[in-house]
From TrEMBL:
<dbReference type="Pfam" id="PF12668">
    <property type="entry name" value="DUF3791"/>
</dbReference>
<dbReference type="InterPro" id="IPR024269">
    <property type="entry name" value="DUF3791"/>
</dbReference>
<protein>
    <recommendedName>
        <fullName>DUF3791 domain-containing protein</fullName>
    </recommendedName>
</protein>
Amino acid sequence: MTDELKFFILLLEKYAYDKNIPTADVLREWEEKNLVQEIYDYYEVYHTERIENAYEDVEHLMKTGKHLW
């Protein structure tokens, strides 16, 4: 398993836990908005910052389709 995949799973599960949303629902929403690959590919940015920064960016992506940075 790659570091990117490990981090993606961590981000997905932690986001779902912290937002009190079932993990499957979060993944489904990301899939419906075609964001899974985009979030996965942003590993280099997300893994070097606070996880809450990744949350903010993911939420912005869900609303606008664009990254905050």
